[in-house]
Amino acid sequence: MSLIEQIDRNRLPQHVAIIMDGNGRWAQSKGLERYMGHQEGVVSVRKVVEAAKTLGVRYLTMYTFSTENWHRPDEEVHALMSLMVTAIKHETPDLMKNNIRLSAIGDLSRLPEDAYRTLMECIEETSANTGTTVVLALSYSSRWEIVDVIRQAVRQAADGNLNADAVDEDWVSQHLTTNMLPDPDLLIRTGGEQRLSNFLLWQLSYAEFYFTPIYWPDFREEEFYDAILYYQKRERRFGMTSEQLKYKP
């Protein structure tokens, strides 16, 4: 029986977050330039998005470029931004064909003008699609996001529009960049590292974590299905006991 046939379609994660790690190391292991790893990583993005759509996963958030990545060599940053522009232009027709909606989170104001314009055009063009929503985390970090929420609270309080007692978990969630999304049920990280790297720290509080040594350019449909099967074997208790779950209405 194939992996996809083993998946219970009634127990899918609603939202999967992915840290796509290992592009550069994949390229170096093959004696290639780092940017070639990023190019091959785009193929994996396409394959995983298709796999998520096939299964019926509603939301897929992909850690595409962190705020820390701006500190990489200028040549690599420029290559990544150019690749993003090319990839979005190339993939937009397929997104439309497959009813996939594109969205983005992060400090998008830092993107180069052509990258920002291309991204916004794709987001607008796919906005009416009703299938899987693919969220690109661009110029994003969780600490940046949380600091931004604190600034919002301070400004609203200074204007007399916010009482301290009104700030609870729901208020914070509603003011994060992910306010339109459910929290992720599953986090996948490729490349062998086992850390969050400043990604969705608030939102991943109750997610299941799946770490794999496979570099992102080698992570395709079957690897994604394997991660979903891992998720389905987990008992998600949310602070309760196994016995409580048995009798939960």
Your description of this structure?
The protein is α/β, with parallel strands linked by helices and 249 residues long. It has one domain (13-141, 184-233): Decaprenyl diphosphate synthase-like (Undecaprenyl pyrophosphate synthetase). 44% of the residues lie in helices and 14% in strands. It has a six-stranded parallel β-sheet, with helices on both faces. Helix 4 runs parallel beside helix 5 (113-125). The mean pLDDT is 94.
Radius of gyration: 19 Å
Mean pLDDT: 94
Tell me the β content: 5-15%
Q: Largest sheet, if any?
A: 6 strands, parallel
SSE-based structural type: alpha/beta
Strand order of the largest sheet: 3-4-2-1-5-6
Overall number of domains: 1
Which homologous superfamily in CATH is the superfamily?
Decaprenyl diphosphate synthase-like
* Level-1 CATH class name: Alpha Beta
Order of helices and strands: HEHHEHEHEHHEEHH
**Name of the CATH architecture:** 3-Layer(aba) Sandwich
Distance between the termini: 33 Å
The third-level CATH topology is: Undecaprenyl pyrophosphate synthetase
Q: In percent, how helical is the residue content?
A: 40-55%
Rough outline: globular
User: How many helical elements?
Assistant: 9
Task: Work out the number of β strands.
Answer: 6
Uncertain segments: none
Question: Which descriptors apply to this entry?
Answer:
6 strands; Undecaprenyl pyrophosphate synthetase; 249 residues; alpha/beta; six-stranded parallel sheet
